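Good morning N.,

You mentioned wanting to compare the apo and holo forms, so I went ahead and generated the holo version with 4'-deoxy-4'-aminopyridoxal-5'-phosphate. This is what I fed in:
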Amino acid sequence: MNHLAKKYDAINLSQGFPDFDPDSRLIDLVTKAMHSGYNQYAPMAGNMELREAIAKKYDVLYQSSYHPETDITITAGATQAIFCAISAFVKSGDEVIIFRPAYDCYEPAIALNGGKTISVTLDGPDYQVNWNTVKEAINDHTKMIIINTPQNPIGTIFSEKDLLQLQALTKDTNIIVLSDEVYEHIVFDGETHKSVCLFPDLKARSFVAASFGKTFHNTGWKVGYCCAPKALMDEFRKVHQFNVFCINHPTQKALADYLNEPDHYLELPGFYQKKRDLFLDLIKTSRFRFTPSKGTYFQLLDYSAITDEGDVDLAKRLVKEKQLASIPLSVFYNKEINNNVLRFCFAKTDDTLKRAADIINTI
Ligand code: PMP
Ligand code: GLN
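and this is what came out, ligand included:
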């Protein structure tokens, strides 16, 4: 869709990335780090100041302790954290449960390691998890359950009840949980993010994957991290060490300094809620239907009242005829399905959102 958007000079609300720059202070901190000798390999598990700053964040936000020495590893974005966690544990014949529609990097990593993806499908418009269905999907081959809260592409969040259900279902099993929490700071309407680390029995069997790209508007830097208790992290690092060894150093140092300044990530829910509200207000009289996103920077729009065209066809047609790019929801199911829904990214300047809304209102 990015390629098509460029070709047709379309407004691009498809792939999830901001069309504005990170705080210039953070950019200055990278330059400063480069001038201060942070130009050679970082330690394998990551720059220690950054690991300490991350540990402090978990203490403050979740009253949950991850030891910087043993429990936290800096990764090449959350993608590499997810890949290493899966590769460390999923072997031939193992089953991994995921919730669809799902972000696209889980299933290929499972397949590369010889595992089998078991999809639990969530249905719109509210996409709630039926935990009985999850219970039925669990068997002796189940090695891992991957959750994603807030969930891309559907903009839902897991409640405390959801996590308690997951904790109860995995109790007394060997199942590992991989919790993709890259949008942890992008939760709306006064709700708070429920991390697996808030639930001690769950935390004991879980990896948390996170990304600075989403939090500090720098997806192109590809710096993320993974937290897990030592026993799990030891296995993770055996993969990480020979996968990339370590991540680029000056950005780690800059992120450590920035994370140690108060409140940067606390501004994020308000910042993105304003954008969501602006976007939805601008399109409220359009023919699209929607339930406001509860988290992430994605909004689903249902076009059932407009056309019964397939979502891939419509998404392509909108780029060519209306110069507006989105992502068809069906691609996140990885099977033939059409819910008449498109995903729009609202991590854009207000001007971009206004220009996009002008187009949406003519469809
Ligand atoms: N998980 C989800 C749900 C995402 O939306 C993304 C962003 N593309 C990632 C993981 C990957 O994050 P990163 O860019 O840090 O690799
Ligand atoms: N997470 C972003 C999205 O869902 C994009 C990252 C990617 O394209 N790999 O659009």
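Residues 16, 77-79, 103, 148, 152, 180, 182, 211, 213, 219, 222, 224 surround 4'-deoxy-4'-aminopyridoxal-5'-phosphate (ligand 1) (CB under 6 Å).

Happy to go through it together on a call whenever suits you.

Best,
F.
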